[in-house]
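As a next step, the fold was encoded as tokens, giving this record:
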Amino acid sequence: MADFHQNGNVATLHNLRTQSAEDMARELTAIGQSRKISLILPSLYSELEGEALPKILDELATVPYLHRIIIGLDRADEDQYRAARKFFARLPQDHVVIWNDSPRMKAIHERLEALGIDPGEPGKGRNVWFCIGYLLGQADSAVMALHDCDIVTYKAEMLTRMVYPLAHPSFPYQLAKGFYPRIGDGKLNGRVSRLLVSPILIALQKVIGTRDYIDFLRAFRYPLSGEFALRIAPLPDLRIPSDWGLEIGVLSEAWRNMAPKSVCQVEIAENYDHKHQPVSEDDAAKGLSRMSVDICKALFRKLAADGTVFSEEIFRSLKATYYRCALDLLEAYSADARLNGLSLDRHREEKMIELFAQNIMTAGQVFLENPAEQPFIPNWSRVHAADPGLTSDMLKAVAEDQEEYA
């Protein structure tokens, strides 16, 4: 993707293949002496048993500029936590495994609930939120990076290219979002981004009119990428969803809190592939079906907070417009795949479009029935205001878990 096109909304930083990742890593090592860089890895225990995470650790072990790696561990019992400690022990960097299901961490959760600050149901968003709280409690980093633990094509260069614009003092950026082409096994991937997010943003502009927020989201080449980095300063005020809307939620917060010139997207890989979620046509609480509903709800709530009025009639129009836009884009995806010798199953993709169209109505109905629902986890500034000692107590809980279950 070696071009230099700019969309005019957010800066796009390309890989023009003229600067080596090794040179960038050496620069970051020097910069990291005064501007420390930390990485968050939200992980399910099951990912320790997959093919991707061991290879990711092999790559991370070669990264010289990381100050700390924070692993948020979900769905693990005591024996699995011990196993995870051994699994991550090969990392040469300072690192910590936060056992989110430990009795001590559950007590922290209950303390938050008692204050009326519910961090939500277990999931990636809540996992990341606790990791951010731990990072803020350490108070020694300048840049936070985050990526998933199921990337089968992972290279350390991905992290280097993502954090470079935030760590380097000559850049003005507060947020960097990774992008890449999604291909694998001879197929065009990225189904939710291609078949839901892109066409629904076009449809929303047709139905409710031009919105700066929609223009902002459309500027990103891959808005659902799980790879992004932030400078530490905005983190205490970051409000993120606890569900599958995390990536859209982070971009929404960037649009609300940051100047457009402080946001960039960075080409971090020539190819990217990860574990593929099942579509789950028969169960809207799982897989890509659940993801599509959560993403739609995140979009509707953010637009409503910006003054957009929704009704059943608008959602019906949106569903019809989305369906037509998605089919039009599918023609372009099909041509792109054919030109590049990739396969694309038109029947399966049209069935996904039909499912997503129905889920737009489902998400709209949920929104209309409970428009005052608070979808975001309260930010850490509010937590500190409500209970100034909670962050330090959480750090203590993590340390005591490490000591007791060593």
Residues 221 and 230 are 18 Å apart (CA to CA). Strands lie at 11-13, 37-44, 66-74, 94-99, 143-146, 175-179, 183-184, 187-188, 228-231, 263-267. Residues 312-339 form the longest helix (28 residues).
